[in-house]
Amino acid sequence: MKIVSALFAILLVLVGANAVYVVNEGQTGMLLQFGRIVKADHRPGIHFKLPFVQQVLLFDRRILSLDAQPERYLTSEKKSVLVDFYVKWRIDDVAKYYGASAGEVLQANQRLAPIIKDALRFEFNARPLHELIAGGRTDITQHVREQANKATRASLGIEVVDVRIKRIDFPEEGTVLESVYKRMRAERAQVANELRATGREAGETIRAEADRKRVVLLAEANKEAQQIRGAGDAKAAEIYAQAYGKDAEFYAFYRSLEAYRESFASGNGVLLLDPKSEYFRYFGESK
């Protein structure tokens, strides 16, 4: 009798343990009965089920990651680029997720990757290379996330939280890298030429302004010199006039001596004049 009671107690414990299950924080549960979904999306807490008949599956409700291998895409100019990206996703509908991937994260990533790659291919094919380099990644990832969610929520029960492009590279064996370098060199050369042209223009402006100031200064200096010379000549004429007015005869004699000195300065000059001319006025006079 005691053995039967012990066995009954053990059986009761096993049944009770199998009838209770716990869904932890960050998880969601789904209840199956003979492979058919009875209830999905169990919230965290303690729940009950039919022992040995119903089965519980637990899934991670937190954000999961898909880090794919770099993929090659063509831009609108048919230039090849290598795109490295990753995706953040989480379960949106547990029943659809289980039906599409059997609850396996690896299988879900394998089905999610082609959807993201197709959306990225569409976006890259519609954009030129310079737009991708200049900073069009935000628009691309937003469009990819929107397009991907339309497919993944309906078919996989997955919500794409975020899509990020880590880097965009150029295939070494192609001509894209060289064309990018050529474009960069051309842009830098254009900037340098613009700076040189601006410098030459500024230099010509400075030289023209300096030449103008030089002409103005020389003109003003010549004007001032002419004024000084005119004032000096006027002063000299005034002094001569005053001297002539004091003794006109002496002044005439002095001027005659100056004329004789200049006429015979070379020492071999010859003048053919009348001895009685006014030029020899002072040669024949004596007191």
Topology at a glance:
Blueprint: H1 2-19, E1 20-23, E2 27-33, E3 36-42, E4 45-48, E5 54-60, E6 64-67, E7 71-74, E8 80-91, H2 94-101, H3 105-125, H4 129-134, H5 137-155, E9 158-169, H6 176-246, H7 248-263
Antiparallel strand pairs: 1-4, 2-3, 2-5, 6-8, 7-8, 8-9
Helix pairs in contact: 3-5, 6-7
From the structure above, extract its key features.
287 residues, alpha+beta, Tetrahydropterin Synthase, Chain A, 4-stranded antiparallel β-sheet, 3-stranded antiparallel β-sheet, 7 helices, 21% strand
Structural commentary:
Helix content is 55%, strand content 21%. The chain folds into 4 domains: 2-59, no CATH class; 64-174, Tetrahydropterin Synthase, Chain A; 178-246; 255-280, no CATH class. It contains 7 helices and 9 strands, in the order αββββββββααααβαα. With 287 residues, it is an alpha+beta fold. The model has no long low-confidence stretch (mean pLDDT 78). It has helices at 2-19, 94-101, 105-125, 129-134, 137-155, 176-246, 248-263; strands spanning 20-23, 27-33, 36-42, 45-48, 54-60, 64-67, 71-74, 80-91, 158-169. The termini are far apart. Strands 6, 7, 8 and 9 form a 4-stranded antiparallel beta sheet that branches. Strands 3-2-5 form a 3-stranded antiparallel beta sheet, with no helix packed on it. Strands 1-4 form a two-stranded antiparallel sheet.
